[in-house]
Amino acid sequence: MTNTFVCRVGLLALLVVVSSSCGDTTPPTTVIPTQPTPTTPAPTPTPPPVPRGPFPGAGTYEFVSPTPGRNVWPYTVDSRFFLKGDGTFVLRLGTFEYLGRYKYENDHITFDFDWNAQHEGAIGVFDGNRMTVTYNWYMMMGDFDDAVYQLK
Known about the structure:
By secondary structure, this protein is α+β, with helices and mostly antiparallel strands. Helices cover 20% and strands 36% of the residues. It has a domain at 59-151: Beta Barrel (Lipocalin), CATH 2.40.128. It has an 8-stranded antiparallel β-barrel with strand order 1-2-3-4-5-6-7-8.
């Protein structure tokens, strides 16, 4: 009986050791997939800054070219600004004329259009006898194109 008892106790001890090694209490590590790093789209290049200069005065400014990196509508190619000495202007686009007032201050002109009460609808910056006109968002949605004009 001693042999059987020793065998059974040994077998029981072996089972306790084996079962305790199988009862690992640390949870398995979870592998979390890494998220791909979002890429930021490359910013669209902005046109180079236009050098500012003094206002050459009232007169007729005819279209010369679109601003760098931009396209214009065909009617813009035939456009011209008539700046009058009394602070009023006429923008002629094809057969349409847009009236308004302009004001020169801080080395640029602001154009206020009468047709839609658009104050500062465009800004003109000078480089010698050239004027680069930039429209605000509202005017651009109305198909007005940024462009360069020259005093004639």
